[in-house]
Amino acid sequence: MTDDDSVRRRLHPATLVSRWLRIIPQMLAAGIAAGAGMAKQGFGGILLFAAIAGLAGIAIALLVWWRFTYTIGANEIVIEKGVLSRQRRVIPFDRVQDIAIEQRLLARLFGTAKVKIETGGSAADEGTLDMIALADAGQLRDIIRRGKTPAAAAGGEAAESEAPELVLFEMGFGRLLYSGLFNFSLVFLAAIVAVLQYLEQLGLADWEELVTVEQAGEAAGLVGVQTTLVLILLVLLLGMVAGVARTVARDFGFRLTRSGASHDEGMASSPRGLRRRRGLFTLSEVVIPLRRTQAALIESGPVARQLGWYRLSFQTLGADRKDGGVQLAAPFARIEELLPILAEAGFPAPPPRAAFHGVPRRALVARTLPWLALSLVAAIVAIAVAPPAGIGAAILLALALGSVLRWRKHAYLVGDQALFVSRGFLTRRLWIIPHERTQVIIASRGPVQRGLGLATLLVDTAGASPMRAPEIVDLDGRDAEALADRLLDLFRHARAVIRLQSRPISSPTP
Fold first, then answer.
1. Strand locations in 200-325, DSSP E?
2. What is the rounded distance in angstroms from the CA atom of residue 18 to the CA atom of residue 111?
3. How far is CA 261 from CA 214, 271, 437, in A?
4. Residues 296 and 432: beta-carbon distance below 8 Å
5. How far apart are CA 121 and CA 128, in angstroms?
6. Is the Cβ–Cβ distance between 400 and 371 less than 8 Å?
7. Handedness of CA 392, 394, 398, 401 (dihedral sign)
8. pTM for this structure?
9. Sign of CA dihedral 50, 55, 56, 60
């Protein structure tokens, strides 16, 4: 990377290979299908069409690579792309929320990486440099984070690389394999279905003609109880193997370290963050800036929780949207291993369960009444008309029981530094929301809640996903209003302390 900011740069030439490998299979499939339609010309016609499609793929990849450029300015990066329709995107450095470096297997062979720049805007692809040299990727991230020119950033990068990073968490291969047993996956079924659909699109198979409905029914009648149990065990075994393989591919070499200045060094040299590296085939490196973390989330499944294993993640501004605005910090750890990570990120340790406050007992009416009413209707229908409807009644009763169990585990606690919200029965979740990160406090009441004098309190933070919101459900209405006022006072106090601490200390005049 040169020191001249005005020079337009292109991606690494290895991008041509990557694009070619992505485009050529589609072009070849189209060529084979077109050639098959012209069967009169024989096998030579099919090869001709396939060759033309392959050459067209190479030409398209070359043209797209040539028309993609990026320029690093003093305060922004400019990305221009497009063949027929041109797009010019200007991303100021101070609006960047997150930068991720990712290396797939092909990129690792060529010594390149993908850089993804996110600003928290609405665009799905805010700024992606598909393949640039790995050294340039690291320097570009340093330039954007520090807001410096390439020459100044290069000097700062050399100084920073000399300082060793503190290891906060890492996973050995034994623990990695063990954690995969808790990540059951049926992805292999999706892969089988995808292959069958692809073969059918190419005209190589027609599964509707091969297996009719009558034949499928006859085969199902021949399957005995023992065969069914064997098939179920086989699916469970394949699911466990798929879960282990998926976990190893994703979290291989998982390592979380502290990057940037320490607590005693201040913020002058570089912003503090948590650097996460993981991946077997796709090696990804993400730095989670601590100043952009909004909430912490500790999760555990029923089996893993009984064995003392937990998962820690942070909700951040600008995190990858496919993860719902959440960055993983520790996928499989003991609670004592999570405490140093929380402390480094400025989050308090979870208090004991006995310190939490539950929600009123009359909340059980709001939670279970709909399921109980529906189960009663299903039971009446089962007695009078259709006995199979009794199965539906049993399912609805089970849902009502699940609501009771979730009510027992739902609790909250307002601490000096943060709000703690616990929810879930099978999958237990504990949110930690520092008071200064509170964005919006919303109190809402549904029709049943209004009749029972209850309310739901939502403490929203910047960048939060609606599906993972820390809600306190079915609070007493007056308690909800009082709690909202208290959280607002704690927010104001926390922000005032931050402003006071951020003021420069003036030296006394002689």
1. 255-259, 273-278, 283-289, 293-300, 310-316
2. 13
3. 70, 6, 22
4. yes
5. 14
6. yes
7. positive
8. 0.75
9. positive
Question: How far apart are alpha carbons 254 and 71 in whole angstroms?
Answer: 33
Q: Are 77 and 117 in contact (CB under 8 A)?
A: yes
pLDDT at 262: 44
Burial grade of 89 (CB within 10 A; 0-12, 13-18, 19 or more)? middle
Tens digits of residue pLDDT in 455-477: 999 998 876 666 567 889 999 99
- Check pLDDT > 60 for residue 66: yes
DSSP assignment of 176-188, as one string? Answer: HHHHHTT----HH
Pairing relation of β-strands 166-170 and 310-316? Answer: unpaired
Q: What is the pLDDT of residue 96?
A: 79
- What does R_g of the chain's alpha carbons equal in angstroms? 28
Taking residues 372-382, report their average pLDDT: 73
DSSP-derived letter for residue 325 is S
> Exposed (0-12), middle (13-18) or buried (19+): which is 183, by Cβ within 10 Å?
buried
Query: Rounded to whole angstroms, what are the CA distances from 185 to 181, 189, 246, 504?
Result: 10, 9, 8, 54
The 3-class secondary structure across 407-439, one letter per residue, is HHHCEEEECCCEEEEEECCCCEEEEEEEHHHEE
Residues 456 and 477 sit within 8 Å (Cβ to Cβ) = no
**Which pLDDT value is given to residue 266?**
39
SS (H, E, C) 74-103: CCEEEEEECCCCCEEEEEEHHHCCEEEEEE
Q: Determine the 3-state secondary structure of 54 from DSSP.
A: helix
Backbone angles phi, psi at 166, to 5 degrees: -80, 125
Tokens of 326: 């959440």
Other C-beta atoms within 10 Å of 412: how many? Answer: 22
d(CA 343, CA 323): 23
pLDDT in tens, 146-199: 765 454 445 544 444 445 688 999 999 999 999 999 988 776 666 666 666 655
Q: How far is CA 65 from CA 19, 108, 193, in A?
A: 9, 19, 34
400: helix, coil or strand? helix
- Residue ranges of domains in the chain: 14-162, 175-251, 363-407
Neighbour-count burial of 158, counting CB atoms closer than 10 A to its CB (0-12 exposed, 13-18 middle, 19+ buried): exposed
